[in-house]
């Protein structure tokens, strides 16, 4: 029970300090889950990938999968409730007062400053997943490179999947679900079948 309360509190903090959408919570989730010994960085990356592929809000999906992975149904409920509660409270308070002041010069000025920060938060949150996916030699939970050797350890199969997915999204305008299905099939071919054929 104590561990469930710890998880609820951890995800309450994540929900409270996540500004910029669900992707901005990735560094916080990684820090809490890995720091408390609940998951490895690779497991966090897997949970993020599964949460992205399933319907529903990314933040709630990630919390639910992380809780389920570590402590079963109780963990899923604790993490989901914990990450949702701050947003619910703050959104109700903001909705109560924001629309009365949304056109005020100070409010508009603050929003103009916050919007670029959201872009930075999202870009920063993507880095752990990029590092774990493309640079398996990074070795720091996706936090940073230890040196140029890790940079040269790029997994070209992962880069190929990334490039094909990007082209299908931006050039061919494929639906994201189709791109994920195609990337999954390409991943099976490159990461499982090809090594078996060349062994």
List key phrases describing it.
single chain; 199 residues; mainly alpha; 8 helices; 0% strand
Brief synopsis:
The chain is mostly helical and 199 residues long. Helix content is 78%, strand content 0%.
**What's the end-to-end separation, in Å?**
48 Å
Number of strands: 0
Tertiary shape: globular
Percent helix, as a range, is over 70%
Can you give a write-up of this model?
With 199 residues, the protein is mainly alpha-helical. The protein folds into two domains: 2-149, no CATH class; 155-198. It has helices at 2-17, 26-35, 41-53, 58-101, 105-134, 148-151, 156-170, 176-198. Mean pLDDT is 81; it is low at 140-145.
Layout of helices and strands:
Blueprint: H1 2-17, H2 26-35, H3 41-53, H4 58-101, H5 105-134, H6 148-151, H7 156-170, H8 176-198
Helix pairs in contact: 1-4, 3-4, 3-5, 7-8
């Amino acid at each position: 029970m104590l561990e469930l309360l710890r998880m609820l509190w951890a995800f309450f903090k994540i929900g409270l300090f996540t500004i910029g959408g669900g992707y901005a919570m990735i560094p916080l989730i990684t820090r809490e889950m890995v720091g408390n010994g609940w998951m490895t960085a690779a497991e966090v990356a897997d949970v993020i990938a599964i949460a992205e592929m399933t319907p529903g809000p990314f933040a709630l999906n990630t919390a639910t999968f992380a809780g389920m992975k570590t402590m079963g149904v109780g963990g899923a409920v604790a993490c989901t409730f914990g990450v949702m509660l701050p947003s619910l409270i703050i959104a109700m308070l903001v909705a109560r007062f924001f629309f009365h002041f949304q056109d005020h010069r100070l409010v508009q000025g603050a929003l103009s400053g916050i919007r670029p920060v959201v872009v930075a938060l999202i870009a920063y949150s993507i880095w752990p997943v990029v590092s774990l996916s493309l640079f398996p030699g990074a070795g720091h939970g996706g936090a940073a490179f230890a040196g140029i050797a890790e940079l040269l350890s790029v997994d070209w199969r992962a880069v190929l999947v990334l490039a094909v997915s990007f082209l299908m999204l931006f050039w061919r305008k494929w639906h994201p679900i189709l791109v994920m299905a195609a990337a999954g099939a390409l991943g099976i071919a490159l990461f499982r079948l090809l090594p078996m054929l060349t062994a």
